[in-house]
């Protein structure tokens, strides 16, 4: 299938943040499902007749199997670069399988991560997103286990999941396999790979607001030991509930894979994704009036006029060479090139409006800021890894070592339109009436180069039959030169981050673990003096229990963690009204995570994750209060014995209340839950009809309080799909 990795393109100007910038308790549900699951698991042995399908095997990557209709996997190398079962991995790992994505139509990366335990999606604009876990921003991303340097903290564009067989989310600092250590999480996208047998599938979806989707996936054996996989998708109409907004996504990829002999395997691929939007918001809705009271816009409200747009494309090419030495050792070399152009014409609304008169402080009210950007991002990556086993002290141990190099180049042009600062009285900020202005000639706004070099090593010591110790370290060097919007982006930092994890097998199915990781994360944010902030540094500790059930068909885990880090960037204000500046603060995060994924009983799959955290500053005060302190992510499906062609399912995503202390008001979002339903009927072995209903209770809520502007999430909506497989 697909090969593509959308290198999660950063927004064209990371520092120009916008200036203004339900009641369902989950505990009863979580306890009921957990108790029911434990009872079912205790009483239900693995069914010998259950079908199994083997996941594509990648050297130094994913091995193992997943049950048909499965919501878990046996093994993952995402945390350590060693092929370990989830129970043997001394960190919290959530796996979003292809089956779960298909069941609940998680076709966008944002939707997929919003349904992942411990992760929150902060949609600050229609097409600019932050992800968080354990109270901090996620900035570590991988494709097939190879880390992609993430130069900025946010993602621009709405990218598709059609290219991936599964996604692993490793929570906690993961400096071993990423370019930097970060205490939130590492997201590893695992590409679909060619099969040795012919396989094909296609799907057609029609949904609310004119949503249409067509996708196809074909794997073809070629001559000898070679095979190819092609994936294409066209999706348009998503989020059409917003006034004047339309999203069009185009996805295409091809991967060719084969053997050059008994010991060598190579793969090469190219992918293309384009996210094109009309009516794209830059910033979002002002959330309060001058008296501090909340604004009241309709759910469909948008500040973007019809002429606003944003086009983000990602071209990604990669090549791999795996060599097996014949003694249990293997090497893998990967080279990747990403090219991403972005063009946008946007309209930002700034200011604070008076509730009664439509004017504002000093008579300014809401004002306009139309602008145009053209941005190009080029990235070249190389990674070489060597892994195998060695004997010492009468026992066999595992070793993984490697090196990586990455260079990211950016260039940007900007043109400011006539009419900046025009008053927007009454409802004109959201009615789309602002006319297309004349834009001046574009000029260079920034250009810089970021280079990163890593050396890493990990050893899994077989201390005894029941004791395994994982030790490792990652040496990272970051060098940046250039400028962005008049700000010197020069920085240089080098650090070695150690890692240690101990696993004790209590019995054949239950393990206890403890892990420690150092944190080192260079930043791009600037302070009030326009100087780049120093890197984040700190440490994180995690303790947990893990159980593998029914021969790997289900996984149960619980973890407690504590993180301390210094110099975390926190928004302090704006230079010239729009140019954000930050201060480095000390921050601590601690919490509890519980998760079950896999087979509860015959024909019953579930994924349930509960997270409770606290995030505090140097003096114990609450910080990053826009991050929910408690979340529940749950999804389940059941296939009836009496009517095996029918599968039904439901999902519940809940989060606790959040707030943001802004300059003139406290903005609040109450706790809320969103409920989804799905049903699928197998017309015959090759044809399936399915229906999905999202936000069943039509819960009205904001997408984020990361900034002091936001917009409303989609109301109740549904879709019907017809899928064919060969």
The computed structural class is mainly beta
Shape summary: globular
Proportion of beta-strand residues: over 45%
Largest sheet: 22 strands, antiparallel, barrel
The share of residues in helices is: under 10%
- Write down how many β-strands occur, each being a DSSP E stretch of 2 or more residues: 40
Rounded to the nearest angstrom, the radius of gyration is 25 Å
pLDDT < 50 stretches: 1-68
Explain how this protein is built.
The strands form 7 sheets. This protein has a 22-stranded antiparallel β-barrel. A 5-stranded mixed sheet has the order 5-12-13-9-10. Strands 6, 7, 8 and 11 form a 4-stranded antiparallel sheet that branches. By secondary structure, it is mostly beta strands. The chain starts with 25 loop residues before the first helix and ends with a strand.
């Amino acid at each position: 299938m697909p090969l593509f990795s959308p290198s999660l393109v950063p927004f064209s100007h990371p520092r120009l943040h916008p200036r203004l910038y339900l009641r369902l308790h989950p505990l009863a549900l979580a306890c009921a499902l957990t108790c029911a699951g434990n009872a079912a698991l205790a009483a239900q042995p693995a069914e010998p007749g259950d079908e199994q399908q083997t996941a594509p095997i990648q050297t130094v990557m994913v091995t193992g199997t997943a049950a048909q209709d499965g919501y878990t996997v046996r093994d993952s190398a995402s945390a350590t670069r060693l092929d370990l079962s989830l129970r043997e991995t001394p960190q919290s790992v959530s796996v979003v399988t292809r089956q779960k994505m298909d069941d609940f139509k998680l076709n966008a990366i944002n939707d997929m991560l919003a349904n992942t335990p411990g992760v929150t999606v902060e949609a600050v604009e229609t097409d600019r997103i932050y992800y968080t876990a354990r109270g901090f921003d996620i900035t570590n991303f991988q494709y097939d286990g190879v880390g992609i340097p993430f130069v900025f903290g946010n993602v621009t564009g709405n990218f598709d999941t059609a290219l991936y067989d599964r996604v692993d989310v490793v929570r906690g600092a993961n400096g071993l396999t990423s370019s930097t250590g970060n205490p939130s999480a590492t997201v590893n996208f695992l590409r679909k790979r060619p099969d040795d047998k012919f396989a094909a599938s296609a799907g057609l979806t029609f949904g609310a607001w004119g949503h249409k989707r067509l996708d196809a996936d074909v794997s073809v054996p070629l001559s000898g030991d070679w095979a190819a996989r092609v994936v294409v998708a066209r999706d348009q109409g998503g989020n059409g509930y917003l006034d004047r907004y339309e999203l069009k996504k185009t996805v295409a990829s091809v991967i060719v894979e084969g053997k050059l002999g008994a010991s060598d395997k190579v793969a090469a691929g190219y992918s293309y994704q384009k996210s094109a939007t009309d009516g794209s918001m830059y910033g979002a809705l002002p959330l309060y009036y001058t008296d501090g009271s909340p604004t009241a816009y309709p759910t469909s409200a948008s500040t973007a006029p019809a002429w606003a747009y944003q086009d983000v494309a990602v071209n990604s090419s990669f090549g791999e060479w795996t060599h097996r030495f014949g003694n249990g050792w293997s090497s893998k070399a990967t080279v990747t090139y990403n090219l991403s152009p972005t063009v946008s014409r946007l309209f930002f609304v700034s200011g604070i409006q008076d509730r009664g008169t439509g004017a504002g402080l000093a008579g300014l009210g809401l004002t306009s800021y139309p602008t145009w950007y053209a941005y190009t991002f080029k990235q070249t990556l190389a990674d070489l890894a060597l892994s195998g086993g060695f004997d010492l002290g009468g026992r066999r141990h595992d070793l993984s070592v490697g090196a990586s190099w990455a260079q990211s180049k950016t260039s940007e042009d900007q043109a400011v339109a006539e009419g900046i600062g025009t008053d927007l009285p009454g409802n004109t900020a959201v009615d789309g009436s602002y006319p297309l202005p004349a834009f001046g000639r574009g000029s260079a706004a920034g250009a810089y180069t970021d280079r990163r070099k890593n050396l890493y090593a990990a050893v899994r010591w077989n201390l005894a039959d029941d004791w395994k110790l994982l030790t490792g370290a990652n040496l990272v060097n970051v060098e940046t030169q250039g400028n962005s919007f008049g700000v010197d982006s020069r920085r240089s930092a080098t650090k070695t981050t150690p890692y240690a994890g101990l696993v004790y097998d209590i019995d054949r199915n239950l393990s206890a673990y403890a892990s420690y990781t150092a944190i080192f994360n260079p930043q791009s944010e600037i302070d009030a003096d326009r100087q780049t902030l120093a890197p984040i540094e700190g440490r994180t500790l995690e303790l947990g229990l893990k159980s593998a059930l029914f021969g790997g068909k289900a996984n149960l885990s619980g973890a407690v963690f504590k993180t301390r880090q210094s110099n975390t960037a926190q928004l302090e204000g704006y230079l010239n009204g729009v140019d954000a500046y930050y201060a480095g603060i000390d921050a601590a995060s601690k919490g509890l995570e519980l998760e079950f994924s896999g087979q509860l009983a015959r024909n019953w799959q579930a994924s349930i994750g509960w997270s409770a955290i606290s995030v505090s500053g140097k003096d114990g005060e609450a910080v990053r209060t826009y991050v929910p302190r408690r979340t529940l992510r749950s999804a389940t499906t059941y296939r009836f014995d009496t009517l095996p062609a029918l599968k039904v399912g439901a999902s519940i995503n809940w989060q606790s209340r959040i707030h943001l202390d802004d300059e003139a008001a406290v903005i609040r979002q109450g706790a809320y839950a969103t409920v989804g339903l799905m049903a699928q009927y197998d017309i015959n072995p090759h044809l399936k009809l399915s229906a999905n209903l999202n936000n069943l209770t039509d819960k009205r809520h904001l997408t984020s309080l990361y900034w002091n502007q936001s917009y409303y999430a989609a109301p109740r909506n549904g879709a019907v799909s017809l899928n064919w497989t060969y």
